[in-house]
Amino acid sequence: MTSFMDDGAQALDDVRVRYLVTRSALRAAKALTAPEAKPEKRLEILMECHGAMQAARGPGSPLSFGDFRRALTGDLAVLLPDGVSPLDLEGTRAVDQDGQVSEDVFDLDFEQQMLLRILHKLDRTATVVSDREFQSELDQETAFTLLRKQGEQAVYEAGRRDLIRRPAGPVQELAELRLPPLVADFYRDIPYDSVYRGWWFACPICCWPMRITVRNNAGTTVGAARCWHMPHADMGASYLFPLPDDAGAPRLLPEPAPPRPSAREAVLYPDLGDVPTALPTEGHKALTRGIWRYTTIPGLPELALYDQLAARGLKVGLWPGLDAFDLLVEVGPKRGRKTSFKVDIKDYTSARTLADLIHAQQGDRGGADWLVLPDHHGRHVPLLSGVCAKYDMQVATASEFGEMVCEKAGVSWA
Questions:
Q1: pLDDT digits (tens, 9 = 90+) for 292-346
Q2: Model pLDDT, residue 128
Q3: What is the average pLDDT across 87-106?
Q4: Backbone angles phi, psi at 367, to 5 degrees
Q5: In sequence order, which residues have a C-beta less than 8 Å from that of residue 141 and are 6 or more positions away?
Q6: How far apart are CA 339 and CA 323, in angstroms?
Q7: What contacts 213, CB < 8 A, 6 or more positions away?
Q8: What crossing angle do the helices spanning 297-311 and 153-165 adopt, rounded to 10°?
């Protein structure tokens, strides 16, 4: 793995170039796919993004405007100049087969921004990005700061639970949540690309508005609703619907879902329940994408693991010390020495970006000694184990960790 800590200034510059390329491609993709954008405005944004891409590549790697446009629907790795490793950009598309901005490019852009922001705060790479890019705080960091300002653990837990359990819903119900007013302001109108003729659908796993597209299916035009978080869509949060002839609400038909896992992984596997019904956009709001992706999404396995361990009689603390880390699990006799596990749960699309964040912070800044990943990121464990070992941290999937601590406690996990 290439790491800025290992390879010095050249690797730092590579991080910056990948970020600028991803950011330019994402902004261009949004302009291409926004239905309300006027042609002249669309062209203006695309030309600006092409210029930013040229600046990132440098004078030695010219890129024509046509090649830039074509790359948005192809492999983004071709936009990088020679000598810069593509890492997670390889195989990533900015605009997918449905003509929509792809989920992965959103995640990679946000995760790279978080990495650069932490490097900037550590004053190790002051020239990586400009101060102007960091004038506004990331949404979820601002929300956490506002929740912590009360200084009460119970208030913090209640507010963060609300952000995880209720990322969208009726305005009247959202107004009753136990959130500071400035945090409640992160609930906005339902995103336009999750709306069909004034209707939207909540993902049965995360409850955020699902992505809506219209596509040709076996010669028939149909609608499709899928969770923006690809692992949720792969678990079954993926539906089709016939286009209504009138203004009535669409009705979803589930696409084939994979079988539920057995044994260890079944404990934390989500239950999709009933097929989601259409909800009117009027009178409903949803969290901004940043808070949903990096508070709601990782919060679901945090709460699931907490609930399952507590149900088995283990002593578990949730976000102790106003979120020093995610879980504190204690195993041992009622009287006597206990073994403590300090757990941080991360859900990153890019394992390499997460590895670089761990390097930047020299482990977990809150003091966690376990990095736990959702089960669907099990393939990331070998890479991250090698990185975390340098900082006396161990890595496991959520189900592996749950089974391990239950075995130490003398109780059954599955």
A1: 988 999 999 999 999 999 999 999 999 999 989 999 999 987 777 889 999 999 9
A2: 42
A3: 82
A4: 95, 15
A5: none
A6: 20
A7: 98, 99, 100, 223, 224, 226
A8: 120
